[in-house]
Amino acid sequence: MDDLTPEQRKKNMKAIKSKDTKCEVMLRKALWKKGYRYFKNYKKLPGTPDIVFIKAKTAIFADGEFWHGYKWEENKKRIKTRKDYWIPKIERNMERDKEVTAELKKSGWRVLRFWSRDVEKNLEKCVKEIEKVLHK
User: Fold this and answer.
1) pTM of this prediction?
2) Hey, what long-range contacts does 69-76 have (CB within 8 A, 24 or more apart)?
3) How much of the chain, in percent, has pLDDT values that exceed 90?
4) Can you give the residue range of the structural domain that contains 103?
5) CATH number of the domain encompassing residue 31
């Protein structure tokens, strides 16, 4: 059972960002500071990648752990409320991520996916990985 009232739950869910999350902004600022120019939330590609380098045909996603199923088999056991809703929702998100990645790769795009925790804890490592792909 949910501990929050419907109004509180609605307010909480409205506050969840789908773009310009903390890790996306951190990654973008680090890339910008190094002189890289990109498109953000590029709607012309499947999955609306968070960062896109068109000339390098590289799409980057910064995925939140809860929404995209980080260590899913281990973490899905932690869901205590509305399992019938959350488990299929997150599993569908994971499936969609695979579909989007496959579709982009089939079209000749390089796809990088980072967990938000990795961006926040190892920003420079993530930037170096992007640079390595961009300079291939």
Assistant:
1) 0.85
2) 69/93, 69/94, 70/115, 70/117
3) 71
4) 18-134
5) 3.40.960.10
